[in-house]
Sequence to fold (375 residues):
Amino acid sequence: MSRGISVILIVFLTGLASAQVVSVRPAPQISMPAHTVDGNSPGVWQGDRLNVYTSTGTPSSMNGPGIFDLSVGAPPIVNSKVHFPMWIESVWRDDDGLTYGWYHHEAPVCGKLNSPEIGALVSSDGGHTFDDLGIVLSSGDGVNCGAQNGFFAGGHGDFSVILDRKREYFYFVFTNYAGPALNQGIAMARMPFPDRANPKGAVRKLHQGQWEQPGVGGAVTPIFPAHVPWERSNADSFWGPAIHWNTAIDRYVVLLNRACCKTNWPQEGIYISFSADLSDPSGWVTPAKILDDSQIGFAPGYYPQVFGVDPGDTDTIAGQTPRLFIKGVSRWELFFDIAADRDPEEEPDPGDPGDGSDGNRGLDQPYSDGETAFR
Fold:
């Protein structure tokens, strides 16, 4: 990539015009040393060592003094194989030293098709061995064995987890592949922080603006609905959200894949969205494209995520210039900033972007390539 690509989101805070700015910049390539990266690759600090997990149905690990100097480590041991194949996609270390993890499990249901579900883990030895705490998120809709996307017949999966800044809830941002078309796309759930050691039955899904549906079997309302449902061969939807808190702009940031519009999920591009408050589902802005598939340089260009570059940074907390990874390869950095004190008369009003929608994407509005929320 010869140059950065910039998009600007216009928002108004406390009556003043301000903007979250993100630029994609070329950077020297670094690659995660795992043989294959097949999902979100979460990281957690254990003392002065960064442990990063990735999975191909069986979890593996990497570790080192930072994201720029990782080596392949011993694979973590999960004490039960009931939920294999397993992809560990999020981890978090507690103040008492326990390490919690969350995984994507694929259950075969229709020949070559699977129905994913999401479960929880805990480790008491620094992430070397994990106990399976069971499934905490699964679809209440039946599988569709006629699905033509090439992989899934339904289910919940391809996700990430983050603890909110008040340490009240763990928020799950996941992909719903099941049920009526209007319910498919990127969905959310949350679990009270005190329930982290006993998560079964504690997770509640977002549905119609309320966090009340049970994690196992409950209904969802997506924050970013699919344009074309997943059972169609030409499915058009975001998937695989990777969320982090960005300290430079004081916002939650989510990166998204977009599958469009043929079978086997061809990557259309990498998208970004922001939110100031995870408890408010209407606060997410319309996702905007930051990289086209043609600019990635390899295929499939799945699994975008950031990794912060400062001590203590991970895939869920990062500063102004984190590295952007796609399928374990980073050829880019992101630059986050706030442009404040703009003259509102010189900027488009996010309350009236001129397309009949509001500046922030409501639950019933389609996503775009950024023309409403970004310029």
